[in-house]
Amino acid sequence: MKALVLGLAILLATVIAVLPAGLDWWGYVLMFLRGAAPVIALFISLIAIFIGISDIKDRAEAKKEQKRGEGE
User: Fold this and answer.
1) Where are the domains of the chain?
2) Whose CA is closest to 48, among 61, 56, 60?
């Protein structure tokens, strides 16, 4: 319950900080997102590549298991 209340408080503080009537940090947030977008895209692509490699390995292992089952 404490984590939920703390999370909501931080969310509210963040929204107030971004609004023009608050601290007006929206420009800084956009600047950060523009700079972070290529890095985020890099991490997402690396994760997708690792998932694809893992999927290929799993399919190869499943074929091996299937051949072992048919051979017996």
Assistant:
1) 2-71
2) 56
Instruction: Report which DSSP code applies to 22.
Output: T
Alpha-carbon distance values, 63 to 11, 12, 22, 67 (Å): 48, 52, 60, 6
Per-residue pLDDT at 72 exceeds 70: no
Query: Are 63 and 70 spatial neighbours (Cβ–Cβ below 8 Å)?
Result: no
User: In the numeric block, which tokens belong to residue 24?
Assistant: 């007006």
Do the Cβ atoms of 33 and 39 come closer than 8 Å? no
For residues 8 and 10, give the distance between their C-alpha atoms in angstroms, rounded to a whole number: 5
- Give the number of C-alpha atoms closer than 13 A to the C-alpha of residue 52, restricted to the C-beta side: 6
In tens, the pLDDT along 4-18 reads: 999 999 999 999 999
pLDDT in tens, 21-36: 889 899 999 999 999 9
